Amino acid sequence: MALWTTLRGASLGLVLAASAGHVPAASAQQSGETIRERVVVTLPNGRRIVRWVEKPAPQPAAVTAPAAGSPSGSDPFTSPGDGSSIAGNTPTGGGDAGGLPEAYALWYEYFRNGDTRADVNGDGRVNSSDYFAFVTYITRNGGWSPTDTLGPDTDGDGFGDGRPQNDEDAGSSDSGNPGSDDGDSQGDAPDAGGEQDETDSNSGGGNPGSNGDSGMPDDPAYESTGWTEFTASADTRKVYVSERGSDSNDGLSPNSAVRTIDRGKDLMRDGYPDWLLLKAGDTFREAIGGWNISGRSADEPMLISSYGDGPRPKLITGTGRAVSIVSPRFNRHHVAFVGLHMEPGVLGSGTGFHLVTSTIKDLLIEDCYIGGYEINISIDTEARESKMRDVRIRRNVIADGLGSAFSFGIYAESIVGLLIEENFIDRNGWDFRAGRNATATMFGHNIYIQRSARDVTVRGNIITRASAHGLQLRHGGVIEGNVFAENAIGLLFSNQELNEPRATDRVVHNLVVDGVHVNDNERRSWGVHISNVKQVRVAENIIANSEVSDPDAGFGLLLTGADSSYAVRGATVENNVVHDFGEQLRIFNEIARDVTLRNNTLSKSDGNKSVVYVRENAPLPGVRFEGNAYRHDDDDSPFELGSRDLTLAQWRAEFDSQAREAPAYVDGDRDMDSYARSLGFSNADGMYESMRTLSRRTWDERLTSAAIRGYFREGFAPRP
């Protein structure tokens, strides 16, 4: 089994500006018959490269980019919704010495057509890695022609070895091998879209605020592994199931498919890399049920997926369990469930995946729709010491867990090694048909990870409209690169149960936006809640624009614990943006120890709330403020220390000697509605409905965490 990375160009969101229409006029300096023009390249991580290029005086002719309309996913230059795509801001002025407009238009045309002359990095392929090489070349040399490359790529970093290495470089880009289809009608990921041919690209990041950039945080450092690829082994048995098949068939070809999933399971062999394939577009009114067999190894797993063209096969599983792995008598190792649609038939009943045993190891759930169960995915174990290991939940739609006050999208405990990655997890914990006031409670969550879970990573997901928490992670781990929207509490992080502090625990590069209440009586609208921790880094998050204006509720960043036994001890909070989310920062200083808050931007425009609220009217011996930026448009004394109200000057004198006034933003009003409208949706709800249709076959990089966070980073850049 090979993992490969998908990074479609449409998500790169890169802006090349070299015209007076996009760069302030002051950026061009006259010098005789030539001018020096400021060229700004904005990278996907928000960082900017600045170069001055000698040019002759502008000519009236204009060169534009090729016409829009390239196939979805082939254009690496679109920045969704902000009006700053290259096609909309093509440099003008023909005949320039550096050749930037002509070079751009020419290279872009080659790229769109797959012409090898666009292979700037010299690796023999035309893909998004060449874009970074192209930008590097023109910023270093002031122009480009089809014969220019950066030299051979001998070190495998995706760039020719001529790539400059100074501080203003774009960083490296690691190219992966595209997926392939072996022509067996299933593809290397059987009928889950193996015909797609994409490469991976990981753009290097820089330091916020350096080289004249926006000061906004860089993109997450994690590298997406894209879709999982599967290759049949020499002895793989493929068992086909179709609603038009017959259980008297042998099931070994599409023309001799069996009729029921139960019969297909009978033909699978324990310990083999066998595949159970359901006909795409078919509907099966049965569950997969109990699963008691394993694949051969991590490289040769057992696979339950689909074959043929069309949407995911739909399983209407009834009031029981769609997939049940419960008995400790069997080992269930190296099993993958890929590209299936599961729902109960009666909303709010049954369980999607029900994992209750310590014998599970190396289980993958990918590209599935799992919705409408009381709990969509439940992970537990009967053995508290011998825990299940290595469960990966990737690129699924997990929605509408409802039916009780304790409904969840994902519930997990007693597991070692849990990855929740790049899923759309929406509207779990309450009944959307009756509304929040009737059904939402503090106990229903999109993701609830108990204290007994270990080594948990939650990254790159879009987590929306939970009853209460978007994510509650109680034993530490990694939360990075996610979007949390319209949750009563965006996320809670705790690791108090750790025996020793763990330096790898972090909450980084997330977006929390559009906070709401649980219901009219349960008022929350909390962004990021850090509670009961021994050590954590909270960095480079954007927490912005609660939908709630409530004098009695709402916090952007909350550092608290239940009592002195559950204190916040050892937290570094840095380079975050918190804007218009009730009180931007609330801290219970009497139980906080070894907490550093530095280089954060806390800004507020609502007179009802403080920028910083400290519960006790006392010194802060365990809390350090270092160089944060603050702004409150309606209050001259926005710092609340117990019963004291302090001005910025007083706060600087007593607590934060390097405190400064926060700048205005390019567009600090951005929310999920505005992002949705930029893509042509009427509002965020319409966009979420479209996200529910995402699959490997319909993947849209505009509807990913990376694209959404890029839009907000641009909006929360300081206004020039």
Describe the structure.
The structure is a single chain. The strands form five sheets. Strands 7-8-11-14-17-20-23-26-29-32-35-38-41-44 form a 14-stranded parallel beta sheet. A 14-stranded parallel beta sheet has the order 9-12-15-18-21-24-27-30-33-36-39-42-45-48, covered by helices on one side. A 14-stranded mixed beta sheet has the order 10-13-16-19-22-25-28-31-34-37-40-43-46-47. It is globular, with a radius of gyration of 27 Å. The chain has eight helices and 48 strands. The longest helix is centred in the N-terminal third of the chain and has 14 residues, at 100-113. Helices cover 10% and strands 30% of the residues. β7 (238-241), α3 (261-266) and β8 (275-279) form a beta-alpha-beta unit.
Question: How would you concisely characterize the structure shown here?
Answer:
10% of the residues lie in helices and 30% in strands.
SSE arrangement:
Elements: E1 2-3, E2 15-17, E3 28-31, E4 34-42, E5 48-56, H1 100-113, H2 128-141, E6 228-229, E7 238-241, H3 261-266, E8 275-279, E9 283-284, E10 289-290, E11 302-307, E12 314-316, E13 321-325, E14 332-338, E15 341-343, E16 351-356, E17 360-366, E18 369-371, E19 375-380, E20 388-394, E21 397-399, E22 408-412, E23 415-421, E24 424-426, H4 436-439, E25 445-449, E26 454-459, E27 462-464, E28 469-473, E29 478-480, E30 483-485, E31 489-493, E32 506-508, E33 511-513, E34 526-531, E35 536-539, E36 542-544, E37 555-560, E38 568-574, E39 577-579, E40 583-587, E41 592-598, E42 601-604, E43 612-614, E44 623-626, E45 629-632, E46 639-641, E47 644-646, H5 648-654, E48 660-661, H6 672-678, H7 684-691, H8 705-715
Parallel strand pairs: 7-8, 8-11, 9-12, 10-13, 11-14, 12-15, 13-16, 14-17, 15-18, 16-19, 17-20, 18-21, 19-22, 20-23, 21-24, 22-25, 23-26, 24-27, 25-28, 26-29, 27-30, 28-31, 29-32, 30-33, 31-34, 32-35, 33-36, 34-37, 35-38, 36-39, 37-40, 38-41, 39-42, 40-43, 41-44, 42-45, 43-46, 45-48
Antiparallel strand pairs: 1-6, 2-4, 3-4, 4-5, 46-47
Helix pairs in contact: 6-7
